[in-house]
Specification:
Layout lengths: L4 E7 L3 H15 L3 E3 L8 E6 L4 H13 L1 H6 L4 E6 H13 L5 E3 L7 H9 L4 E3 L7 H5 L10 E5 L1 E2 L10 H4 L4 E2 L2 H13 L4 E5 L12 H10 L6 E5 L8 H9 L6 E3 L7 H6 L6 H14 L4 E8 L6 H14 L3 E6 L16 H24 L5 E9 L5 E6 L4 E5 L8 E9 L4 E5 L1
Parallel strand pairs: 1-2, 1-3, 3-4, 4-5, 5-6, 7-10, 10-11, 12-13, 13-14, 17-19
Antiparallel strand pairs: 8-9, 15-16, 15-18, 16-17, 18-19
Helix pairs in contact: 9-10, 10-12, 13-14
The chain binds S-adenosyl-L-homocysteine, iron/sulfur cluster (SF4) and FE3-S4 cluster (F3S).
């Protein structure tokens, strides 16, 4: 048999891309490709890209430029661009970068094996369809190879919300949910490979409708999967937090007490201009109901500063909302103009104003995160151990609140959920003693 061909995938952007990269590697595995962790010596390089902000999208072109010497060394090297930049700029990528052999969008990557046949003959291949055939039907079961204790599982794709700043409805298409029985089967396959915690993914995961009782119905179905110990989901829209899902946070033992619920802004004027279809008050009401159901839940959010038209008072309203919620985790961004979105037509704020606001926002969020992390000291948490830590004898994992937590422990805690008493709080992690 000939040596296996080496596949290197670089993943940008969100967790859904991480999941897609795994599935692409598995699909190409059927064609004799084995994944490697370096671009040097690879036979195929895929850049699985993100289009959400300008910087992310432009990075792809500079990374492509850096691959040129590798192609000079190995003329048989195939270079592909996949993901959201591929979807948004397909033809343009081929034009700007002659190095690229293959461009495939997020909905068509099940066709990669056939596209590989085409490019091996020296042709170029481009597929940015939103095809009728379901990629998950073609991809079928997961690889049986042993893997780590945590995994992502895409259950819903696309978005119908059309926030005025966002490219996702264009790059990922309309909302589609996978049927619950298929998701449960994939979860069982993952558990057989060693997975103990699954994070259900969707651009709007709580709009999931592949089960008659929505995402809550799916979570309860997964609660029955033997060997699966933890369930998480991301990302949710405040308007789709239905009663059953809120209730599940109080009663479903495998559902972890962590919720990522982006709000973007605390100003009703800006929320309206963003087409978010909720107010600061309605968001705070949802949060209050979730906290009623699960008082210890750790909340996370996304924020955009400097959306067109944002005044100092609008920005202060965002800070007020943050003070009211108290986030244990957060992601914040300067507004980035995305071609083709409604907000791109509006006059932009000066960069220095955005920079200054982002700094103030992040200072507040960092303080909240640090306080919540410190409040864990002295408490007992449950840690799913994932890998060895930095020092000898140390193991590291995640608590139920998703805090990275390390403790001295034997190797066999790997893949197990164990009780840990927290003794210290560092910058980005907690330290504790195994009980
Ligand atoms: N579907 C999710 C996540 C979408 S993208 C949601 O609705 O929350 C992840 C985050 O990127 C968004 O929540 C938003 O905060 C940020 N984002 C999206 N478009 C952006 C843009 N044009 N500029 C800056 N940040 C953006
Ligand atoms: Fe983008 Fe809004 Fe959809 Fe989230 S809900 S993916 S921010 S359009
Ligand atoms: Fe980026 Fe596409 Fe995810 S634009 S954030 S990779 S859905």
């Amino acid at each position: 048999m000939s040596d296996p061909k080496k596949l290197f995938i670089k993943t940008y952007g969100c967790q859904m891309n991480v999941y897609d990269s795994e599935r692409m590697a598995e699909a190409l595995g059927g064609k004799g490709y084995v994944q490697t962790d370096t671009a040097d010596g690879a036979d195929m390089i895929l850049l699985n890209t993100c289009h959400i902000r300008e910087k992310a999208a432009e990075k792809v072109y500079s990374d492509l430029g850096r691959l040129k010497p590798l192609k000079d060394l190995n003329p048989n090297l195939k270079i592909g661009v996949t993901g959201c930049v591929a979807q948004a700029e397909g033809q343009e990528i081929m034009r700007r970068s002659p190095l690229v052999d293959l461009v495939v969008g997020p909905q068509s990557y099940h066709r990669l094996p056939a596209m590989d046949d085409a490019i091996q003959t020296g042709a170029k291949a481009l597929d940015t369809d939103f095809p009728e055939d379901d990629k998950f039907d073609t991809l079928k079961s997961r690889s049986k190879a042993k893997r780590g204790p945590t995994a992502f599982l895409t259950v819903q794709e696309g978005c119908d919300k059309f926030c005025a700043f966002c490219v996702v409805p264009y790059t990922r298409g309309a909302e589609v949910s996978r049927p619950a029985d298929r998701v449960v089967r994939e979860a069982q396959e993952l558990v057989e490979s060693g997975v103990r915690e699954i994070t259900l993914l969707g651009q709007n995961v709580n709009a999931y409708h592949g089960h008659e009782d929505g995402l809550a119905g799916l979570i309860w179905a997964l609660n029955e999967v033997d060997g699966l110990e933890r369930i998480r989901f991301t990302t949710s829209h405040p308007n789709d937090m239905d009663d059953a899902l809120i209730e599940a946070h109080g009663s479903c033992s495998k559902l972890m007490p962590y919720l990522h619920l982006p709000v973007q802004s605390g100003s009703d004027k800006i929320l309206k201009a963003m087409n978010r279809k909720h107010t600061a008050e309605s968001y705070l009401k949802v949060i209050a109901r979730i906290r009623d159901a699960r008082p210890d839940i750790l909340l996370s959010g996304d924020f955009i500063v400097g959306f067109p038209g944002e005044t100092e008072a609008d920005f202060e309203a965002t800070l007020d909302l943050i003070r009211a919620v108290e986030y244990g985790q957060a992601y914040s961004f300067k507004y980035s103009t995305r071609p083709g979105t409604p907000a791109a037509e509006k006059p932009q704020l000066p960069d220095d104003v955005m920079d200054e606001r982002l700094q103030r926002l992040q200072a507040l969020l960092t303080e909240q995160q640090r306080d919540i992390q410190r409040s864990m000291v002295g408490r007992e948490v449950d840690v799913l151990f994932e890998k060895k830590g930095r020092t000898e004898g140390q193991m590291i994992g995640k608590s139920q609140y998703l805090h990275a937590t390390y403790a001295d422990a034997p190797m066999d805690v790997l893949g197990q959920v164990r009780r840990v008493r927290i003794t210290q709080s560092g910058t980005n992690s907690l330290g504790g003693e195994l009980l």
